[in-house]
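Field reference: sequence -> structure
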Amino acid sequence: MKKIVFTIFFCLAILAAEAQVDKILGPWTAIDPDTDKPYATVLIYKSSNGLYYGKLTEILDSDDPADQKLIGTIIIKM
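Structure field:
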C-alpha cells in the first residue's frame, strides 16, 4: 500500500513540476539593469523538439535600423 501511495504522490509531483515550467511561456519584457526601464520584448516558447527558446519580438524606444534588424533573433535556447 505504501508503494502505491508513494507512486501516486511521485506522479502528481512530476505533473505539478511540469505545470510550473509552462508558466515561463509567453511574452516577457526585458529590463535594462542600468536604467531600470524596459527595452525589449522577448517571446518564450517551447518548440516541437522539447527545447525552450526566447525570440526577440520588439525593441522599445529605438528607431535605429540596426536595432530593428535584431527582431526575430533567438537569444535564449535551453
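Note: Helices lie at 2-21, 65-68.
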